[in-house]
Design brief:
- By secondary structure, this protein is of the alpha/beta class.
- Helices cover 51% and strands 12% of the residues.
- The chain has 13 helices and six strands.
- A hairpin with a 2-residue loop joins strand 5 and strand 6.
- Helix 2 crosses helix 3 and helix 11 runs antiparallel to helix 13.
Length: 283
């Protein structure tokens, strides 16, 4: 079977989940490979996401590992057999793989929750706002590199604006709404765009005011993507090396706790909408 040179984050996650099933059953890769009529080397490749696995073999693996959670097994089979070409594949070889992985994670999420402190969430950014951010962070990029990044970011909005939108909630700090990444008009259009998304039901937005007491979550920016089953939830956080995908149970629990704390520090959606209205009037 053909080896993948650069498996996607979703393929790596599938392999990780299969390894968890094996380890929970107390079996070695060699033992499971023998039961599947394969080699331990091939089993390692599957668990690394660099080799595919068929539905038949996946279900046999689950049975040999005494996994009886049918919803989880069906979700893993869906991950293993999905051959749909997503719109993000148009950017393969043009943008870094992580950009494609983020779009794919959003596409497959059952629910999206996001916390942002410094910038307006990517899913809500206008083209002018996105251009200003990319141009500042990567001033060396020529237009040929900048344009596809902006286009990709705009196409990501289809996950909340499409025919079958994913429920999306975001908590935004007042700082992100006030900072002028470009000029007054860019900021005004951005605030009006957020209000439009709220009115159309594409996003539930909550704001953390700068005068909120007891908020120490300056580093709280993250995305939490609900999976088809709780075991397949995914966290995304920025790191010096780029976006990090989180699937460890303890770390996901920590992110859920952080989400609750940040939500407690924010205004409710109605008050947040009114807050953004006031900010727009002040510009």
């Amino acid at each position: 079977m053909t080896m993948r040179n650069q498996p996607t984050a979703r393929q790596v996650r599938l392999g990780s989940e299969l390894r968890k099933l094996r380890e929970a059953a107390g079996r070695t890769a060699k033992e499971v490979a023998a039961l599947l009529g394969s080699s331990s080397a091939h089993m390692s490749q599957i668990e690394a996401g660099s080799s595919a696995i068929s539905e038949e073999r996946l279900r046999r693996l689950a049975a040999h590992c005494a996994c009886t959670d049918e919803k989880l097994i069906d979700a893993l089979v869906a991950m293993a057999t999905d051959r749909t070409r997503g719109w993000w594949d148009d950017y393969r070889g043009i943008l870094p793989q992580v950009n494609l992985d983020v779009a794919e994670a959003e596409h497959h999420a059952a629910f999206l929750r996001e916390v942002v402190i410094a910038y307006v969430p990517g899913l809500l950014q206008t083209p002018d706002y996105a251009r200003a951010v990319f141009s500042y962070m990567r001033p060396e990029l020529p237009e040929s590199e900048l344009a596809p990044r902006i286009e990709h970011r705009m196409r990501r909005r289809s996950v909340i604006e499409g025919d079958n939108p994913t429920p999306y909630e975001t908590i935004v700090h007042e700082f992100a709404l006030r900072v002028r990444v470009a000029d007054r008009q860019t900021s005004l259009r951005q605030l009006r765009s957020i209000l439009d998304e709220i009115e159309q039901g594409h996003a539930a937005v909550r704001v953390i005011p700068t005068d909120q007491d007891g908020f120490a979550g300056a580093g709280a920016s993250m995305v939490y993507a609900d999976g088809p089953v709780p075991q397949l939830d995914t966290g995304l956080r920025d790191a010096p090396t780029g976006v990090v995908f989180i699937d460890a149970v303890a770390q996901l629990q920590k992110l859920r706790t952080l989400l609750r704390r940040v939500e407690d520090a924010s205004l409710d959606p109605v008050a947040s909408r009114d807050f953004i209205h006031r900010l727009a009037k002040e510009l």
